[in-house]
Amino acid sequence: MAQLEGKVAIITGAGTGIGKGICRSFAREGARLVLASRNRANLEATADEVRSQGGTALVVPTDVTAEDQVRTLFEKTLEEFRRLDILVNNSGAFDGGPLEDITLETWQKVVGVNLTGPFLCTREAMRIMKAQGGGRIINIGSISAQMPRMNHSPYTATKHGLTGLTKSTALEGRDF
């Protein structure tokens, strides 16, 4: 039996890169997947790949910085699968430059995707997981939280913040 047989997993940033790789791995292990990112075409390509190998994938285009879209993501997950076992906060934005040249728009974009998005998704997942008596939340961080990169202060700051969110969530979630 596969390790994730019957488990339901939401994966953000599921259309490309690390997120797509996580989808492949989870599908091989038997998880039923909910794929989220802003780009429907990328999500559909990932879903087609998962389905062609016998997996289950629900596509829900989602901007993780938009609270209403995040709520819809979790509502559709429960409508389709009646539960949520795993959340993978993988969506990420990587932008920077010399600090004195970074615009507020760039800063807010990176903070929104890398920190506000995981907060919104984690909050919704915690509500479901506490009610059902269990679940797992995985936050994809970066070495930048321990080893900052030159000219990437928004990214580094958010990855430090994500580490703090992860630790706080672990404390609050240890009761289920």
In words, what does this structure look like?
With 176 residues, this protein is an alpha/beta fold. 51% of the residues lie in helices and 12% in strands. It has five helices and five strands. A five-stranded parallel beta sheet has the order 3-2-1-4-5, sandwiched between helices. β1 (8-12), α1 (17-28) and β2 (32-36) form a beta-alpha-beta unit. The protein is globular, with a radius of gyration of 16 Å. It starts with 7 loop residues before the first strand and ends with a helix. The model has no long low-confidence stretch (mean pLDDT 95).
In short:
By secondary structure, the chain is of the alpha/beta class. It is 51% helix and 12% strand.
Question: Topology of this structure?
Answer:
Elements (H helix, E strand, L loop, with lengths): L7 E5 L4 H12 L3 E5 L3 H13 L3 E4 L7 H15 L4 E4 L14 H29 L3 E4 L13 H21 L3
Parallel strand pairs: 1-2, 1-4, 2-3, 4-5
Per DSSP, the total helix count is 5
Mean pLDDT score:
95
**Main β sheet profile:** 5 strands, parallel
Oligomer: single chain
Count every beta strand, where a strand is a DSSP E run of 2 or more residues.
5
User: What structural class do you assign from the helix and strand content?
Assistant: alpha/beta
List the helices and strands in order.
EHEHEHEHEH
Helix percentage range: 40-55%
